[in-house]
Amino acid sequence: MPERTWIRWPEGRGTPFGYGADYNPEQWPRETWLEDVRLMREAGVTIVSLGIFAWSLLEPRDGAFDFSLLDDVMDLLHEHGVAVDLATATASPPAWLVTAHPDMRPVDAEGRVLGFGGRQSICPSSPVYRHHSLRLVRALAEHVRDHPALALWHVNNEFGCHNAHCYCDTSAAAFRAWLRARHGTIAALNDAWATSFWSQRYGTWDEIVPPRLAPTFCNPGQQLDFFRFSSDAHVEQYLAEAAVLHEVTPDVPVTTNFMNTGGTKWLDYLGWGAHVDVVSNDHYLQEPSPHPEAELAFSADLTRGCARGKPWMLMEQSTSAVNWGRINRAKDPGELWRNSLSQVGRGADAICYFQWRASAGGAEKFHSAMVPHAGSDTRVFREVTEQGRRLAALAEVQGSVVANDVALLFDFEAWWASELDSHPHNGFSYRREAERLYVPLWRRGVGVDVVHPDADLSGYRLVLVPALYLVADGLAPRLEAFAAAGGTVLVTFFSGIVDVTDRVRLGGYPGAFRDLLGVRVEEFRPLRPGCAATLSDGSRALDWSEDLSAPDAAARLTYADGVLAGRPAVTRRQAGAGSAWYVSCDLQPDAAASVLDAVLADAGVTALAEADDALELTRRVHADGRAYLFAINHSGADAALHAGGTDLLTGAIHEARVVVPAGGTVVLRIGG
Ligand code: GAL
C-alpha cells in the first residue's frame, strides 16, 4: 500500500507548514480569483480546501458533469504555489437530486422530514444518495487524477453535522440489518436490550424500528445501538468514497473533517480515526464558556488521540466571530494566533480556516474569514498574514510528536450511554466531567493525552478515568495490571456502572472498578440545585454524592454532613506498586485541584516546565531528541517561563528564563 500519511505536497514545494482555508471561488467573479491568489501569496497560504459545496456546479443535471471551473481554479492555484485539498463535494446534494428522490431526505425522531434549503439533506443510509455520490466521486477523481495541485482528498464535509441520526424507513431497514450482524439472533438482541421489561420482547427482526418518538423513554439498549448504527452509517459512506479515491488516485491521502469541539458527540471519532489517512478536525470556540482555551486544548488532545498520536490537521476554525451563536463575539487581537499555536503545540501540522473570503450572500455571510468583508486592509488580514510568517518559521516542528505522562480515557459510546434518559442525575454531562479533570492539569502545564480505553497505557504514569459509565470487560484488569506495575489510576463517580449492552454490573457500584478501587457504593445520592455536600477538609461537592464503604482502600476525604457524615468521599487504594484513587462526588474546582495535586505527587508527574500560572504549556519531540516547548500567555500581564532555548518565532536565544509578554507566545527549541 502506498504511504499516505500526510499531505502530498506538489513536486518542488518541499514540505511547507499547511496553512489555508476552505476556498469557495464559485461564489465570486473571476476577477476576484486573481486578487485571491495574490492575497494568498501575501498571507503565506499553502493549501486550500476546494469544492466542498460544489455538487450542483459540478453536476448541474443528472449525470452531466462540468469540471471546467475546477480546472481553471486548480490551474490558477497551482501557478501561485497553493496546493489543493479537493473535496468530493458530496456534503450537500443538488436540488435536482433531492427533488427526483424525496425519500433521500432525513427524517427526525418525531417523523418530520428535513427538506432541501439548508444543507446535508441526506439520509445516511439512502441507496440513491450512495449511488449518486459515488458516481460523482469517481467522475471527479478520474478527471483530476493527474493534476499537479492535488495534494489531499477531503471526503464529504463534517459528516453528521446536521443529519447525525435519520429515523426514516430506509434507515429502519438498515438498522435491522446492522442489528442482525451485531447480535446474530433475535434472542440475543432481546437479552442485550432487556426486553422483558415493559413487554418489549421481539419475535422477528421486522418488528424493530429506530427509537422514534414514543409515549415515554425508549429502551436504552435500542437507543444505544441506534447511535452506534448511525455513527457506523456515516463511516460506511466515508469508506465507500475513500475506496473510490484510493482506487483512482492511490498516492493521494484522504481525510474528512471531524468535529471534536464542545458537545459534538454523535460520531465515534476515536474509532473512525483508524480509517483515515490524515486525521483532520474542525474546532470553534464554545461561547460563552468558563474556559474556552482549555476546551480548545482538550479537543486538540482528543483529536491527537483519534490520530493515534500522529500529526493531524486543523481543517477549520474561525479567524474571528462565528455566525451561529446568539451573540457572536469577535476574537480579540492576538487570539487567532494563540488559538492556532495551542493546536500546533498539541500536534497539528496544518492550520486552516472556514473560510478564505467572507461570503457576500448565503446563510453564513456574517461568519468571519481570512479576508473579511472590509477587505485586506484590516486587523484580521494583517494577523492572518503575520500568522503565515510565523507558521513558516515553525516548519521544523512538523512530524514531531507529543509525548505525555498522563492519559485521560475517553469513549464516545460511554458518552452516548451515560447521557441517556431516566438516569440518577439528568443534568449529567460526560464531556463536562472529563473537562473537570482536564482543566486543572491544563492550568498546571501538565500534558495530557486523551485516548480510547483500548489504547496502550504502558507508557503512562497516570491514567484518568472520568465518569466512564459504560466499560467493556477488559478494562478493569488492564488498569489493575497498570497499577500493579507502579502506575496511578484516578476514577471519578458514575464509572464502571454498565457493560457494553447498558446492563448494570451488579453487586455494588462502581461495578467494573470495585476491586481495582477497593470501594463499594450502595447508593447514588445526587444533589439538587442549591444543595451541596461538605467534605472533611471544608470543601464542597455539588450535583453528586454517593453512599460508599471502602473495605480495601483508605479514605483521604470523608463526607462531613448529612446522612453521609463520616463516610468515605475520596479514597486511595495501594494497588501493588501503584495506587488507585476514587472520587465519589463532583468536587468543585479548588477541591478537585488539591486532590489532583496529591494524585500527581503519587504518580510522580510534574508540569512540562516551571512557569507562571498564566501560561499554557505543551511540548513536541522529534525522534532525534529535538524538542519544542510552546508557551501561550492567555493573560493581560507578562509571565515567566523558566526554560532556555532558541525561540523559533524570533530567533532569540534564552538561557534559562523567558518572559512571555501579555497575550504573547514563545516556541523554544530545546535540546537535540
Ligand atoms: C462548519 C462547516 C463549515 C461552516 C462552518 C461555520 O461546521 O464545516 O462549512 O459552516 O462550520 O462555522
Blueprint of the fold:
Blueprint: E1 18-23, H1 30-43, E2 47-50, H2 55-58, H3 68-79, E3 83-87, H4 95-100, H5 127-144, E4 150-154, H6 169-183, H7 186-192, H8 220-248, E5 254-255, E6 257-258, H9 269-272, E7 280-282, H10 292-306, E8 312-316, H11 335-345, E9 348-353, H12 379-393, E10 406-409, H13 412-418, H14 430-444, E11 448-451, E12 462-465, H15 475-484, E13 488-492, H16 514-517, E14 520-524, E15 532-534, E16 540-542, E17 546-549, E18 554-558, E19 568-575, E20 578-583, E21 586-587, H17 589-603, E22 610-611, E23 615-621, E24 627-633, E25 639-642, E26 645-647, E27 653-654, E28 658-660, E29 665-670
Parallel strand pairs: 1-2, 1-9, 2-3, 3-4, 4-5, 6-7, 7-8, 8-9, 10-11, 10-12, 12-13, 13-20
Antiparallel strand pairs: 14-17, 15-16, 16-21, 18-19, 19-20, 22-25, 23-24, 24-29, 25-28, 26-27, 26-29
The site of beta-D-galactopyranose (GAL) has 10 residues, from loops.
What does it look like?
By secondary structure, this protein is α/β, with parallel strands linked by helices. Helix content is 30%, strand content 19%. The chain contains 17 helices and 29 strands. The radius of gyration is 26 Å and the shape is globular. Bound molecules: beta-D-galactopyranose (GAL). Beta-D-galactopyranose (GAL) binds next to loops.
Q: Would you kindly provide a brief summary of this structure?
A:
With 672 residues, the chain is of the alpha/beta class.
